[in-house]
Amino acid sequence: MTVTSKMNSVSRQSVLSRLGPGGLLYAANKIIAVASGKEDERWRGKDEGALFKRWRRTPSSVQSAPAVPAPATPPSSDLLKFLAINALELSAPASDALLKSRSSEWFQLSGHPGSLAPAGPGTVWKRRAPGDHPAHNPERDAYEALAACPHMRSAIPRYYRELEYGGEHFIELQDLLHGFRDPHVMDIKMGTRTFLEDEVCNARARPDLYDKMVRLDPNAPTESEHAARAVTKLRYMQFREQRSSSAEQGFRIEAVKLPGQPPLTDLQKVREPHQLAATIARFLGNDERARRAIVSRLREIRDLFERSEFFRTHEIVGSSIFIIYDDERVGAWLIDFAKTRRVPENIVVNHRALWKQGNHEEGFLYGLDRLINIIETANLSKIGDEATEEPDVTR
Fold first, then answer.
1. What is the torsion angle, in degrees rounded to the nearest 10, for the CA atoms of residue 291, residue 296, residue 297 and residue 299?
2. Which of 252, 93, 104, 96 is CA-nearest to residue 175?
3. Residue 385 in this model has a pLDDT that exceeds 50
4. Cα 363 to the chain's mean position, in Å?
5. Which of UniProt's keywords are assigned here (predicted)?
6. b/e 222-242 (16+ beta carbons within 10 angstroms → b)
């Protein structure tokens, strides 16, 4: 081996070792894209310097059309993976090769387009939240702290690394659906408050928020608000929480996917306890084994949460619990920490107390208590045969 070839070999090994999980597949796909004459610029939108262009390609005659609805019987693995992507705020494949193989099956659900992308077998990339200061990445900090916590590392997606690509910053996380087969999936937003306190500190009444409130519910404003034709940001955000189950129950169901059916995402008005119980019963079907395993896992997460020093010193705003089960396994994890913040040193939070401006309570555990109770007591349509062995609980 010549000196040059040996150096090249060492260099290749160094590059490969730094790519990490998912990076190798991404690099291979980029090589394929370059070899075929495709340029990186095709992934940049016209109006923004985003890393990824809209992942769903449509014929020129329908470029302005909205996202295409799911086919009657969508391919289960790709569709379910995209539901997980939606729950983790993903929206785009990381390469031309992935786009080519999936563009006919994937479709937009909701969320924040362009914030995450599949990186390879078992991993995803998640972009830094919009508005974060370049030197401050709360979600990365949360995942790094929780990954180092002996109590919590099993309750979150596996955290791999932070990386930079095209001038933008990402974190690489475990793809939670990897290894499941045609599973049931549920994304649940936790807490009685899903906005940060500094988002509502301005007491100025705004006409634009009044207009938004009236469009959603003409009877919502008070007489004085109607007279002023303006509401504060705090008033509007609390009004939004009260339209779902968040304010009263401490959680709301964001999305549900059942095998062989299109996803259910228009669930904002599922707010009463009997409505939540019916939705959860539909999710569980007649699977008592899954119910027991999910309740056991959620109790475990609650216990780990209560023992974690991290959660004693942080408010957990806008985070979700992501539940998956198939015929063999059950999994549940905490996800989404973009709005996690350390509380002031003189503040003690228990995550169950009623929120008042300045106390930083967000009701995470209040909601988890009620979620566990509703899952335990939901009236399933049928009681299945319990003779088979219990499912493996995946962590």
1. 120
2. 93
3. no
4. 18
5. Kinase, Transferase
6. eeebeeeebbbbbbbbbbbbe
Q: What is the pTM of this model?
A: 0.70
Q: Which H or E run includes 290? A: helix 288-307
Question: SS3 letters for 33-84?
Answer: HHHCCCCHHHHCCCCCCCCCCCCCCCCHHHCCCCCCCCCCCCCHHHHHHHHH
Q: Report the alpha-carbon distance of residue 355 to residue 351 in Å, rounded.
A: 9
What does the block give as tokens for 151?
């109590």
pLDDT in tens, 344-357: 998 999 999 999 98
Cβ-based neighbour number of residue 31 at 10 Å: 12
Nearest CA to 137 out of 387, 391, 337, 321 is that of 337
How far out from the chain centre does Cα 73 lie? Answer: 25
For the record, the structure tokens of 213 come out as 């409130």
Helices (H) and strands (E) in the chain, counts: 13, 11
